[in-house]
Amino acid sequence: MPSYKAPVADTMFLLTDVFDLQRYENLPRFAEAPIDVVEAVLSEGGKLAEEVLQPLNLPGDQEGCKRLPDGSVVTPKGFKEAYKAYVEGGWVGISGSPTYGGQGLPHFVSVAINEYALGANLAFTMYPGLTKGATDALLAHGDEALKSRFLPKMTTGEWTGTMNLTESHCGTDLGLLKTRALRQDDGSYAISGQKIFISSGEHDLSENIIHLVLARIEGAPAGVKGISLFLVPKILVNDDGSLAERNKVSCGSIEHKMGIHGNSTCVMNYDSAKGWLVGEANRGLNAMFVMMNSARLDVAVQGLAQSEAAYQNAAAYAKERLQGRSLTGAKEPGKPADPILVHPDVRRMLLEIRAFNEAARALMIWAALSLDEAHESPNAAARQTADDRLGLLTPVLKGMFTDVGFANAVKAQQVLGGHGYVSEWGMEQFVRDARITMIYEGANGIQALDLVGRKLPKDGGRAATALFAEISDFLGQNKDDSALAPYLAPAKTALDQLRQATKWLVENTKLNPENVGAASTDYLHLFGLTALAFMWARMAKAVLARQAAGTSTPELDAKLALAKFFGDRMLPQAGAHLAKLTSGAETLMALPAEAF
Ligand SMILES: Cc1cc2nc3c(=O)[nH]c(=O)nc-3n(C[C@H](O)[C@H](O)[C@H](O)COP(=O)(O)OP(=O)(O)OC[C@H]3O[C@@H](n4cnc5c(N)ncnc54)[C@H](O)[C@@H]3O)c2cc1C
Fold first, then answer.
1. Which residues are catalytic?
2. CA-nearest residue, atom 26 of ligand 1
3. Spacing, Cα 124 to ligand 1 middle (Å)
4. Which position has the higher pLDDT, 509 or 435?
5. pTM above the 0.85 mark?
6. Residues within 6 Å of ligand 1 by CB
7. Between the CA atoms of 142, 146, 151 and 154, what dihedral angle is there, to the nearest 10 degrees?
8. Percentage, residues of the chain above pLDDT 90
9. Angle of helix 107-120 relative to helix 35-48, nearest 10 degrees?
10. What's the half-sphere exposure (Cβ side, CA atoms, 13 Å) at 159?
């Protein structure tokens, strides 16, 4: 059976030593979150993940969800009780708006806890995760009547939420969507159409499910300019908040799929279902983007979380499994063989995963703190900078964390050899579960296009210019610190390469628009590696400061070793990305379609 331990101590190190949480004390939500409270909340969240959610992960995968003939869906044994505990513990609304019953803690708390819950049980945690995204969209774009009727129970998680974009002929290209909305005399809309692949579309965890649905109002323009967003409850709700009759929305079937078996993936049929417009007509994508951005960060964390869970199990196995002898002579001569951890190639796999995980966690926390700053800073310029940074980092985190998260789950599986391939050890589940994260919430190719095509040129490149300057300033300010030098040099090289790549993009986009698409995925990974190198440089500085103050622990030594490993053995990949992307679109587009 696999196990999982929430990395609370690592999160706390980031908050106290790297990002200096006290710096954020002027933000209103942080008044309720002094460091000791944060630590207590994270520890409790970690306990819930380890003790309640993780034991359900493997059996939930084996049992899966079932659709009954009446269209209802039953989640795996234990999910219902776990969800009740999740809601009663206040975890769904931990960072939710206090106006609607949320606890109002900073967003980074919710993101950190989300990592633990997702590491313990990805399929389960999607139910509250989507609910939070739907709540955010409604909070930003719903009118007061909708908010007061739906938000109190969605914020606490008593009612869950979904996002309905995809149709059978319409995935990435939302301009193709056909679901219709017909205005009714009472101001509501009758929604008709079919959505596919809807996560958590039907289940038995909550008494009501609130669907956010993209549809086209009769007579609306074609393409993305004619899409509106609607709130469609599974069960209609009276003005006083009590439940009324069943709405005309039903689950036609559930998918049989590669992973996340404990999460229902539903075909949803809307047969003149009653819905209400959220935000302005024909501006539905704008409103849905609030949910999509929230979900993209959530999916990024899914990638990291699977990588962490897979790492922990592979590392434990490598310490126990006896095969072969160390190349420098037996390390455990009393045993028939040495543990496989003595072999450099096994260490390579484990260290590549861990050096990614720890820097990715830092980047995730930095992005989450940016979210708090963007919402709450009293200073308009600081809000703008944080919002720019978050917007720029969102596709990088989603694309890189999930590409690497999946690759890391495979690496961790490799550490177990054949035992990684069979179900009993749980490693193949991490691989299967991690695979979807690269596909949904905008397939990773689309994240890369979003980065190079939208986020980079936006506002004359303001966000990227500011981020590059932030990294450059850090490197400049610390350039005379000889102890830190080995950790800064690789980050400087990567930043130079990223700047070259950015310049190349600016110059070569004009020459051939396909250069952008051809460069996009390599650019995203080069960007991500540079950001991780910046995180390692900042973590190394924090460790050296602690050590200079007299603290010496194996954990601090390990951080420095990982920082060095990252610079020596992982960051060189940045140069390969630069070489590939600057080769342009020509070789990609050379073959005619008939040659494929
Ligand atoms: C388990 C599961 C859960 C899901 N949950 C939800 C959900 O809750 N709600 C929801 O609305 N949807 C959901 N989806 C749908 C998911 O978001 C889509 O599958 C995804 O957006 C891709 O759409 P598609 O499958 O139609 O692929 P397509 O759009 O057909 O794309 C196929 C491939 O072509 C690439 N591609 C397409 N266009 C371009 C382009 N212009 N440039 C470069 N590459 C391109 C894509 O990156 C992809 O690799 C889920 C899917 C699955 C499998």
1. 441
2. 171
3. 21
4. 435
5. yes
6. 163-166, 171-172, 197-199, 257, 265, 436, 439-440, 443, 445-446, 449
7. -100
8. 96
9. 20
10. 27
